[in-house]
């Protein structure tokens, strides 16, 4: 690639030589690395910490997510920002089910929650970034405790054999995204329990309104726990708006309501405008 000083020019050369259909996200990053003389293009905060991670020897540092990319594009075309679906992973003779939730209200990196369906309570949040050609990708690496817990859930013993490749879980999640239902928003009661259980008053998932504190005589503001719940159940973009404007979300136990207040549209506070 002598004479090429930018990644775009080098990628154009590769596309003309090999065809765009053969280029993956990792090829784009390798091109940038060569031109910048850097060993890695990007590390998110969780990956850059000095912490022990586990993956299969020789496993690629990045896993391309073409089906999740397509599912998000289709969802955004319908006015949504979240992709929720269930997928399966077969290990040995056992079939395991996982819930997957991609939250993409803001710019990358996005959060991808993968949670085992059952009583194990296992879950992990992956940081999903976007390559220069629009492809989403994530690192399959897991920290020691999360990796050991996953092996236990999958029934994989510690027999001294080489480590189980963690990229298989991400690849299964990506393959399952082809069945993701396109919709404008994911109602709170459908969000995986792992994500709902860690908010205040977790049993209250029925949205019933807003409290505007701007003219409050006691100068009260939305609490941190309320903003966290707003972010988890309605979106980080709405939570950021509520923090700036001093607005709290109100919730109730669905069983206590005399009528079903669930809506097919995402509730938004007064004055909120969705990003184009």
Give the helices and strands, then pairings:
Blueprint: H1 7-18, H2 25-36, H3 45-48, E1 53-54, E2 63-64, H4 66-77, E3 82-91, E4 94-103, E5 110-116, E6 123-130, E7 136-138, E8 142-143, H5 144-154, H6 167-176, H7 193-196, E9 206-212, H8 224-234, H9 236-245, E10 247-252
Antiparallel strand pairs: 1-8, 2-7, 3-4, 4-5, 5-6, 6-7, 9-10
Helix pairs in contact: 8-9
Pfam families: DUF6037 (PF19503)
Region (Disordered): 39-65, 252-276
Give the key terms.
9 helices, 276 residues, 3 domains, globular, 31% helix, 6-stranded antiparallel sheet, alpha+beta, 10 strands, disordered N terminus
Question: What would you note in describing this structure?
Answer:
The chain has 276 residues and is α+β, with helices and mostly antiparallel strands. The chain folds into three domains: 7-41, no CATH class; 43-179, no CATH class; 188-256, no CATH class. The chain contains nine helices and ten strands. It has helices spanning 7-18, 25-36, 45-48, 66-77, 144-154, 167-176, 193-196, 224-234, 236-245, and strands at 53-54, 63-64, 82-91, 94-103, 110-116, 123-130, 136-138, 142-143, 206-212, 247-252. The strands form three sheets. A six-stranded antiparallel beta sheet has the order 2-7-6-5-4-3. A two-stranded antiparallel sheet has the order 1-8. Strands 9-10 form a two-stranded antiparallel sheet. Residues 39-65, 252-276 are annotated as: Disordered. InterPro entries: DUF6037.
């Amino acid at each position: 690639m002598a004479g090429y000083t930018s990644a775009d020019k080098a990628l154009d050369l590769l596309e003309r030589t090999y065809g765009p259909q053969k280029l993956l996200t990792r090829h784009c990053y390798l091109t940038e690395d060569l031109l910048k003389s850097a060993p890695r293009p990007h590390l998110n905060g969780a990956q850059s910490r000095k912490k022990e991670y586990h993956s299969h020897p020789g496993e690629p540092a990045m896993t391309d997510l073409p089906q999740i990319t397509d599912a998000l594009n289709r969802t955004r075309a319908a006015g949504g920002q979240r992709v929720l679906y269930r997928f399966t992973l077969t290990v040995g003779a056992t079939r395991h089910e996982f819930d997957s939730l991609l939250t993409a209200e803001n710019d990358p990196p996005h959060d991808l929650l993968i949670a085992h369906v059952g009583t194990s309570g296992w879950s992990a949040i992956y940081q999903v970034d976007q390559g220069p050609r629009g492809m989403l990708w994530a690192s399959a690496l897991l920290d020691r405790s999360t990796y050991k817990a996953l092996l236990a859930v999958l029934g994989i013993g510690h027999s001294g054999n080489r480590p189980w490749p963690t990229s298989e879980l991400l690849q299964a999640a990506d393959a399952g995204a082809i069945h993701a239902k396109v919709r404008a928003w994911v109602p709170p009661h459908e969000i995986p329990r792992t994500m709902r259980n860690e908010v205040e008053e977790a049993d209250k998932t029925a949205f019933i309104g807003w409290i505007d504190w701007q003219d409050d005589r006691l100068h009260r503001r939305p609490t941190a726990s309320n903003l966290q719940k707003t972010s988890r159940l309605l979106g980080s973009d709405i939570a950021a708006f509520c923090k700036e404007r001093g607005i709290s979300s109100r919730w109730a136990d669905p069983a206590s309501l005399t009528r079903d207040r669930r809506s097919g549209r995402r509730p938004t506070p007064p004055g909120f405008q969705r990003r184009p």
